[in-house]
Each structure stands twice: as C-alpha cells, then as structure tokens.
Amino acid sequence: MNTRYDAMFHHLREQKQGAFVPFVTIGDPNLSTSLRIIKTLIDNGADALELGIPFSDPVADGPTIQAANIRALDAGVTPSDCFELLREIRLYAPNMPIGLLLYSNLVMAKGIDNFYALMNEISVDSVLVADVPLRECKPFRQAAVKYNVAPIFIATPNASDDRLRELASYGRGYTYLLSRAGVTGTETVAQMPAQGAIKKLLNYHAAPPLLGFGISQPEHVKEAIANGAAGAISGSAVVNIIEQHLDDESSMLKQLGEFIENMKQATK
User: Fold this and answer.
1) Of 5, 45, 99, 178, which is the most exposed, with the fewest CB atoms less than 10 Å away?
2) Contact by Cβ (8 Å): 145, 170
3) Given the residues 50, 81, 125, 223, the one annotated as active site
C-alpha cells in the first residue's frame, strides 16, 4: 500500500533530499482560489500535500488555521465540495502523495467504512484524524488499511518508548513528528526534538518521520533533516501568506510560490 509515499521517499533518498510538505485548508478563502493555491504549491516544489477540510472545532490548530477554517466555512465550502476539489487535484498531480488532516466528526458523519472507501475512490493517500487518541484508533486504522489509505499518527516529543513502538506498528505512509507540544502556529517556533526520538522511531520501523508545528523558515527545514527527519511540514506559515493577501490573489500566489521554492531548496 501507499505506493505514492514509498515512491516519493525512495526518489528523495536517491536525490539526497528531504521532503517538504505544505498544509492548507481546502476552500480557503473560497473553492476557486483554493484550487489555484494548491496548484501553486504543486508547481513550485511541494513533494506532497497535506490538506484540511473546513471544520468548526479544529482543536489541534492554532488561530491561523482556525481562521482559515472560518473563511472556508463562511464561503459555504462543504466536505462534498472538498472531495470534488480533491478529484481535480488528483487529476492535476496523479503521482503526488495527498494526505488529509481532519477531525473524527467528519469521518463519523459518513460512517467510518464509507468514509475510507470514498478516500480510496478519490485516491487520497493518507488520513490523519487529529482528535482520535491511539487507544481509540482501531476502527479508523482498520478501515484505512482495508481501503488502502495510510493511517497517519502523531508522535509527540515526550512520547514514551511504548507509545512510539505502538504508533510505529500502526502507522503507514509517514509519521507526523511534533517539534513541540501545543497547537499549530508560527507564534511558537519549532524546537528540534532529540535525535534520540527520531532514532527510536526508525528503530521501531515507523514510517518516515516528518517534523511539523512551528516550521516557518528554511532553517527549520534544514535543521529537521539534519536531526534525522525525512522532511518537514509547514502549515501556518503558508496560511499566513494566504491571509495577508486576501485582496490581491496575484500577489498571494507569487508569494506562495516563492515561499515553497525556498522551503524546498532547504531540503537539498
């Protein structure tokens, strides 16, 4: 399973590069602009995409991503709209890994089995359900594996050995390694976890760790990779650019393109 992630990491290892993965909320600030934003991320060097579906209570997210959710909801964007846009993105980037970061209500609303069957049908590669703890993940991960969708798990900086070993056994695709405790956002910069945490994940045969939370500068990407991570995920810094240019789409796309290029360059 997860051939797109496997192919991406294999290619990057051969090129001696890490992965840079931007996050945006689908439908922010509206569907048509969102599609152009995501195409800009792809065209300027993103190795994979992590995308959110607008939700009223994104408890793992800080104020920047929460505002993106509100903009999309105010624009009338629904989960069904997001699934249709995902189909367009897949046609535009047939080989790029595409993951979703979302909340359990969105899965439960369709029924767990039906939701993962749909993800398979629209070629979503992975799903991270941010508000389901490891001890309650069984029905989600079993459905994910059944439908060839990688279940992604979060490794926190203070996780015990037993927890790291457990999530390593469940996860596929990649492991979302947090640089710090708390919620998403650039208000608190990334902190590099001890190399030991990454080594443990690798020793436990976890899916490749990507460092997230507080990744906003090329130096953060370089440091993550120097510490052994397979790459980095940046969300709030990307969404900040969207927020700062809501009245000037051309400038927004230009700034986004330059940001992605610089962050990708830092993986080399």
Assistant:
1) 45
2) no
3) 50
For residues 157 and 154, the model is more confident at 154
Q: What is the pLDDT of residues 90-144, one digit of tens each?
A: 999 999 999 999 999 999 999 999 999 999 999 999 999 999 999 999 999 999 9
Structure-block tokens of residue 188: 């608190």
Active-site annotation holds for 258? no
Mean pLDDT over residues 206-221, rounded? 93
Max intra-chain CA distance, the chain: 49
Tell me which of 6, 14, 57, 61 is the catalytic residue.
61
Rounded distance between C-alpha atoms, residue 14 and residue 237, angstroms: 28
Residue 54: alpha-carbon gap to chain centroid: 14
Q: Is 50 a catalytic residue?
A: yes
Residue 211 burial by CB count (10 A; 0-12/13-18/19+): exposed, middle or buried? Answer: buried
Measured distance CA(258)–CA(171) in Å, rounded: 32
Helix locations, the chain, DSSP H: 3-15, 31-43, 63-74, 79-92, 104-110, 112-121, 138-146, 161-170, 195-203, 218-226, 236-244, 249-265
Report the distance separating Cα 26 and Cα 85, nearest Å.
8
Q: Do residues 207 and 231 make contact, with C-beta atoms less than 8 angstroms apart? A: no
Instruction: Say how far residue 66 (Cα) sits from the centre of its chain.
Output: 15
| pLDDT at position 151 over 80 | yes
Q: What is the pTM of this model?
A: 0.93
| The pLDDT of residue 264 | 98
Side chain identity at 74, as an amino acid letter? D
